[in-house]
Amino acid sequence: MVKIMLCCSAGMSTSLLVRKMLSVAEERGMPVEIEAYGVAEFDVQFPRYQVVLLGPQVKYMLSTLSEKTASHGIPVQAIDMMDYGMQRGDKVLDYALSLIEAAH
Amino acid sequence: MSSLYQSMVTVIEQSITPLAGRLGQQKYVIAIRDGFTAALPFMIIGSFMLVFIFPPFSADTTLGFARAWLDFSQTYREQLMLPFNLSMGVMTFFISVGIGASLGRQFNLDPVMSGLLAFMAFLLVAAPYADGKISTQYLSGQGIFTALITSIYSTRIYAWLKEHKVTIRLPKEVPTGVARSFEILIPVVVIIGTLHPLNLFIEAQTGMIMPQAIMHLLEPLVSASDSLPAILLSVLLCQIFWFSGIHGSLIVTGIMSPFWMTNLAANQTALAAGAALPHIYLQGFWDHYLLIGGVGSTLPLAFLLLRSKATHLRTIGKMGIVPSFFNINEPILFGAPIIMNPLLFIPFVCVPMVNAVLAYTATKLGWLAQVVSLTPWTTPAPIGASWATNWAFSPVVMCLICMVVSTLIYLPFLRAYERSLQKTAVENETRSPLTETAISN
After folding, report:
1. Is residue B56 assigned to a domain?
2. pLDDT above 90 as % of chain B
3. Which of B217, B250, B270 is the last residue before a domain boundary?
């Protein structure tokens, strides 16, 4: 089971992307758990996931947030602006998988 | 054009992004924002009661249903006021706990304890107690700034004491749970021991208790926050941040919320007293006139995109339209894109500023109802605008005007952008036919 967390200001716009990613994963027959949260919930939620992807609009928090996850060995990265805007579930899912791969 | 764009990108990368980073990740700004977010559901539902207490009909109406409603609200006014008084009327309770908990979490403290500690710190200075009764005078809008200060102070003290291991030391044999129950005692003692005498001292010196003194000091700032320059400045900041790809509304609302809440409470007090409403610039004004369909008021743009000649823009329109109704427009911002797109910079910044001037002027002229209620920011614009004013009709008209303005300003720039997209598509086609599909993918 691959566990991916998305995070933006209130977890609203990333939740749009979650749906797209889930349908791609389903097509591929891949068991995944993907959830979106607001930054306020970041600390409580991230330890349950293997990778955290940020909406590009909160990319400015990247350094602070990755400091928090570093001790857990959980990678945090921002989603590419275009992939985010176009809601490319497949590309973002691939990106998340590649980050998990690279971290282990 | 391209050198101008380059220098713009440089400014964004070298000054705006670091500024947003500093502002938006400031522990206290985050705590204040989280605190208000935590308090919001109580205040939204509490202020929703206003429509039952003050039905949106004129007092001499003869309409059967409206008459019955009005009579009902007059007979049972006190009972109807209770949920309002115990939510909006004591909003500082929720705000204190929310800020204390958020800041506590950031300092790695137990959030329940730091929230409760913040709550007590606030009560100590803002809830004068006599004859078995607490005065509620400073528990609503008049106490917000005090709540910010006492919550931050109490949590900082708690963190400092913990960091410097100022605690009651117990033998190792004592179970950790028992040890922890003692851990919080010292911060409570220190908070009471500092805030209570300070409050007594301020009262003895000035004749005002702390929240009164703080409001007295902040009076000029609070009234300046409700002016056209303040509106334009906060909108401009938000738009420039967002254009740089940074969540500007998060930062601006974090700073504005204490002012908005203070002024909202003043408007509600005036409404209850039957007086003229003193304030214009409140959350409802921001959400439902300036951010129609999301930041930059892009709902009308979403409709324009749906009918665009460029395949790429049509796709974005289809993807963005439904979330846009609920004021979520990231697909449009990042997809069109508007962010870092020099051709759309001017309308993106101008639309909310022009609308702000229009809505402000209309209110000043007495044509537009003022905000008295809290609404969720995801409420579709005309509905949210009307709800915020206790269901007046004028905000619906204002919203539609704002949408027309938005359409008119976006349209020429969108056409120019479409032309530039087509031009690059044609140029690419002569070189490689593959690139165009990549763009319209």
Report:
1. no
2. 60
3. B217
Q: Which residues of A touch B336 (CB under 8 A)?
A: 85
Q: In Å, how far is A50's CA from the nearest CA of chain B?
A: 22
Give the pLDDT confidence of B188-226 residue by residue, as tens digits: 999 999 999 999 999 999 999 999 999 999 989 999 999
Per the CB < 8 A criterion, the answer to whether B279 and B366 are in contact is no
Specify which residues A3 forms β-bridges with.
A33
* Residue of chain B whose Cα is closest to the Cα of A59: B246
The verdict on a CB contact (< 8 Å) between B328 and A9 is no
Task: Using an 8 Å CB-CB cutoff, list chain A residues near B17.
Answer: 60
Residue for token digits 């205040």?
B43
CATH topology for A2-103 is: Rossmann fold (3.40.50)
3-state SS class at B207:
coil
Rounded Cα distance, B261 and B141, in Å: 6
Cα dihedral B420, B425, B426, B429, rounded to 10, equals 160
Distance of CA B387 to the CA centre of its chain: 16
Last residue of one domain, picked from the residues B217, B240, B269:
B217
Find, in chain A, the residue whose alpha carbon is nearest to that of B246.
A57
Catalytic, A8? Answer yes
Answer whether A85 sits within 8 Å of B316, measured CB to CB: yes
Nearest to A84 among B33, B37, B330 (CB): B330
Closest partner CB to B246 (pick from A12, A60, A63): A60
State ipTM: 0.82
Measured between CB atoms, does A55 come within 8 Å of chain B?
A: yes
Question: What's at B428, amino acid-wise?
Answer: N
Domain that holds residue B244: 226-441
User: What is chain A's length?
Assistant: 104
For residue A53, the SS3 value is strand
**B230-to-A60, B145, B259 alpha-carbon distances in Å:** 25, 18, 11
For A85, which of B24, B333, B378 is closest by C-beta distance? B333
pLDDT range class, residue B115, cuts 50, 70, 90: very high
How many angstroms away from the CA of A54 is the closest CA of chain B? 12
Query: Are B202 and B265 members of one domain?
Result: no
B277 is a domain residue:
yes
Instruction: Encode pLDDT of B23-82 as tens digits.
Output: 777 888 889 988 998 998 999 998 888 888 888 777 777 778 888 888 888 888 888 889
